[in-house]
C-alpha cells in the first residue's frame, strides 16, 4: 500500500514546472474573469502579461494541479497590484490638514466626505471641519451641513455668493483660527470630465496645498473608471482613491483598473448609503471578488496549505499502520494549532466523521496544547517511542523539566493511549478508501 502511495506522490512531484500551454489555457479563463469583473481592457492586458511572465516555469507545489497553481499566482499578483496593505488616510502634516475630495458628480463625494469625517472624528479622535465648495447646485451645501449634523462634525457656515476658491480659503482660515486638526473640502463634480471642473480643482489645490487629494469614484463605472482616474490624476493629481457603491453588483474591477493606471492606493470603500458604511480596503477581499469568490478563494487556500497537508498525509499513513508515538503526537499537537484542528488531518481518512466528533469533544484548548508539547519535548527519545516505560520517577523528572505536574503527565499519557487506539481503528477501516481519496 505505502509503495503505491509513494508512486502517486512521485508522479505529482515530477510534474514539475508550469508549461507554457498550462499557463495559456489558464490565462484565457483569467481574462474572461477580469473582463466580467469590469476591469478595463488595457489593465487586463498588462496584468495578464505580468502573470504569464511569473507563471511560466514556476514549480508546481506538490499535489496541487497546475490550474490551481496558476490561480494562486493570479490571486497573489492581484493582491500585489491592488496594494498588499490597506492604507490609511495620511494626516502627518501641520494642522489643520487639508483634504480635498474630487470626482465626478454623483460618485459619492459628499456622502464619503461625511463618512470619512465621522471616522476621523470617532476613530482617530480628530477635530474635523467640513466645507462644501459646490456652488453649482443650490442644495449641495445644505446636503453636507445635514450630513454634518448627522455625524456630529462641524461644517463651515454657508455664505451666499462665494466661489469655490473663496470658500476653500475661508475654510482653511477657520480651521487655523479654531484649532481644527483636519479640514475636508468637498468639491463640485460634473457628469463628465470637463476642463472647467479641473481648473477649479487645480485652483483650490494651489490655494490650500492639500495633504491628500482623494478621488471618490463609483465602483460601478466599469470601463470608464480608467478614464476618470487618469484624468483626475493627470490634471489635478490625486494621492488616493475611495471607491463607492462596492455594496452593489460591482465585482470590484474598478479597484484594479484605477489602481492599475494611477498606481495610487485605494484608501477606503463605500459600502452603502448610510454614514457608517465605510470600510477599510482589504486587497484579498477584492481579489477574491474579482476572481469570482468562493471557489477560487478556497482553491488558493488549498494550494497554500498543501505543503502542510503533505506532512499530514504522511502522518496519516503512519497512523494507519498503527504506530503512533509521542513524537507523532507532538507534531500532531503542533498541527492542531497550525492547521486548525486534528479534524484537518483525520479529514483525509475516509469514514472518520464520528471519531472527529469524539476528538472535538475532547476539547483541547491552545494553552493546553502548548503544555502538552512541552511535556513531550522533556522526554527522552526512548520514552517518546515507548511511553510504557514512564514510571513514577521518570514522570517526576519530566514534570519538573516541563514546568508541569505529574498529573499532567498522566493525563497526557492517557490521551496518547486513546489517540493511538483510535488511529488503529481508523487504520483498520482505512485501506482502499484512503487510496481513492488521495488519487481522486
Ligand atoms: P456627489 O455628487 O459625488 O457628492 O455624490 P453624493 O455623495 O451626493 O452621492 C450620490 C448618491 O450616491 C447618494 O444617493 C448617496 O446616498 C449614494 N452613495 C454614496 N456612496 C454610496 C455607497 O457607498 N453605496 C451606495 N449604495 N450608495 C452610495
Ligand atoms: Mg456632492
Automatic annotation (TrEMBL):
GO biological process, alphabetically ordered: SRP-dependent cotranslational protein targeting to membrane
Primary localisation category: membrane
One Pfam family it belongs to: SRP54
Domain Signal recognition particle SRP54 helical bundle: 1-82
GO molecular function, one term: GTPase activity
Reaction catalysed by this enzyme: GTP + H2O = GDP + phosphate + H(+)
Subcellular localization(s) per the UniProt record: Cell inner membrane; Cytoplasm
Protein residues bound to GTP: 103-110, 186-190, 244-247
UniProt EC number: 3.6.5.4
Physiological role: Involved in targeting and insertion of nascent membrane proteins into the cytoplasmic membrane. Binds to the hydrophobic signal sequence of the ribosome-nascent chain (RNC) as it emerges from the ribosomes. The SRP-RNC complex is then targeted to the cytoplasmic membrane where it interacts with the SRP receptor FtsY. Interaction with FtsY leads to the transfer of the RNC complex to the Sec translocase for insertion into the membrane, the hydrolysis of GTP by both Ffh and FtsY, and the dissociation of the SRP-FtsY complex into the individual components.
UniProt domain comment: Composed of three domains: the N-terminal N domain, which is responsible for interactions with the ribosome, the central G domain, which binds GTP, and the C-terminal M domain, which binds the RNA and the signal sequence of the RNC.
Subunit composition and interactions: Part of the signal recognition particle protein translocation system, which is composed of SRP and FtsY. SRP is a ribonucleoprotein composed of Ffh and a 4.5S RNA molecule.
Protein name (record): Signal recognition particle protein
Organism: Thalassobaculum litoreum DSM 18839
Gene coding for it: ffh
Amino acid at each position: 500500500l505505502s509503495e503505491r502511495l509513494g508512486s502517486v506522490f512521485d508522479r505529482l512531484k515530477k510534474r514539475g514546472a508550469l508549461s507554457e500551454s498550462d499557463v495559456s489555457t489558464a490565462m484565457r479563463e483569467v481574462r474572461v474573469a477580469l473582463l466580467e469583473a469590469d476591469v478595463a481592457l488595457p489593465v487586463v492586458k498588462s496584468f495578464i502579461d505580468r502573470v504569464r511572465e511569473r507563471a511560466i516555469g514556476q514549480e508546481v507545489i506538490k499535489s496541487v494541479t497546475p490550474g490551481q497553481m496558476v490561480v494562486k499566482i493570479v490571486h497573489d499578483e492581484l493582491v500585489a497590484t491592488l496594494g498588499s496593505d490597506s492604507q490609511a488616510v495620511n494626516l502627518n502634516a501641520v494642522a489643520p490638514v487639508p483634504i480635498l475630495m474630487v470626482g465626478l458628480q454623483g460618485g459619492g463625494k459628499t456622502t464619503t466626505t461625511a463618512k470619512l469625517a465621522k471616522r476621523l472624528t470617532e476613530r482617530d479622535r480628530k477635530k474635523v471641519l467640513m466645507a462644501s465648495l459646490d456652488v453649482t447646485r443650490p442644495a449641495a451645501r445644505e446636503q453636507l451641513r445635514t450630513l454634518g449634523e448627522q455625524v456630529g462634525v462641524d461644517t463651515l457656515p454657508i455664505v451666499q455668493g462665494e466661489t469655490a476658491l473663496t470658500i476653500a480659503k475661508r475654510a482653511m482660515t477657520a480651521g487655523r483660527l479654531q484649532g481644527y486638526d483636519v479640514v475636508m473640502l468637498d468639491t463640485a463634480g460634473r457628469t463628465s470630465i470637463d476642463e472647467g471642473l479641473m481648473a477649479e480643482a487645480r485652483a483650490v489645490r494651489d490655494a490650500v496645498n492639500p495633504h491628500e487629494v482623494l478621488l471618490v469614484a463609483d465602483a460601478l463605472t466599469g470601463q470608464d473608471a480608467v478614464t476618470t482616474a487618469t484624468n483626475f490624476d493627470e490634471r489635478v493629481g490625486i494621492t488616493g482613491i475611495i471607491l463607492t457603491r462596492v455594496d452593489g453588483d460591482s465585482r470590484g474591477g474598478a479597484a484594479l483598473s484605477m489602481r492599475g493606471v494611477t498606481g495610487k492606493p485605494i484608501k477606503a470603500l463605500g459600502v452603502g448609503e448610510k454614514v457608517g458604511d465605510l470600510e477599510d480596503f482589504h486587497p484579498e477581499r477584492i481579489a477574491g471578488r474579482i476572481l469570482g469568490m468562493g471557489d477560487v478563494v478556497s482553491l488558493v487556500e488549498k494550494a497554500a496549505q498543501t505543503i502542510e497537508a503533505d506532512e499530514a498525509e504522511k502522518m496519516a499513513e503512519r497512523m494507519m499502520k498503527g504506530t503512533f508515538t509521542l513524537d507523532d503526537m507532538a507534531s500532531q499537537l503542533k498541527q492542531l494549532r497550525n492547521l486548525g484542528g486534528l479534524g484537518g488531518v483525520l479529514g483525509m481518512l475516509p469514514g472518520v466523521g464520528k471519531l472527529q466528533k469524539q476528538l472535538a469533544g475532547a476539547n483541547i484548548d491552545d494553552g493546553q496544547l502548548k503544555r502538552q508539547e512541552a511535556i513531550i519535548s522533556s522526554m527522552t527519545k526512548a520514552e517518546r517511542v515507548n511511553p510504557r516505560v514512564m514510571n513514577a520517577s521518570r514522570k517526576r523528572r519530566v514534570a519538573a523539566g516541563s514546568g508541569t505536574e505529574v498529573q499532567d503527565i498522566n493525563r497526557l499519557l492517557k490521551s496518547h493511549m486513546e489517540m493511538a487506539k483510535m488511529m488503529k481503528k481508523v487504520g483498520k477501516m482505512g485501506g482502499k478508501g484512503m487510496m481513492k481519496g488521495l488519487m481522486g
